[in-house]
# Entry
Amino acid sequence: MKKWLTLITLVGLAWLIGYAFENELGIHPSYNLMVAFFAIQTFVLFRIDQWAPQEWKTQVSLVKMVLRLLSSLIFLTVLIFSQQDVYNMVIQFIILYLIFMIFEIVEALTNLREN
# Structure
């Protein structure tokens, strides 16, 4: 339950930053799409974590990180070919990727410490 509340807070803050500081920070028009992608991606990865047997928790944590990387690269490739102002968008995408990856690593470490 704690990780769901943390995820909701993280996504809410990311969207709030996008709406509140859109003009001042030069937020890309596809910023909300990127936040939604990472929120959905994190939800799916949490579900994978719940489906995995207890003895596979370590391997599943590593597989989730690789899946996040590969799906993010595919999504970024699609955005690059379909958007304008690519440089600004890629910088914002990398920042969001790192924020959500840090969140996932912290959650993985808490799960691994319980074992």
Q: What stands out?
A: The CA atoms of residues 18 and 24 lie 10 Å apart.
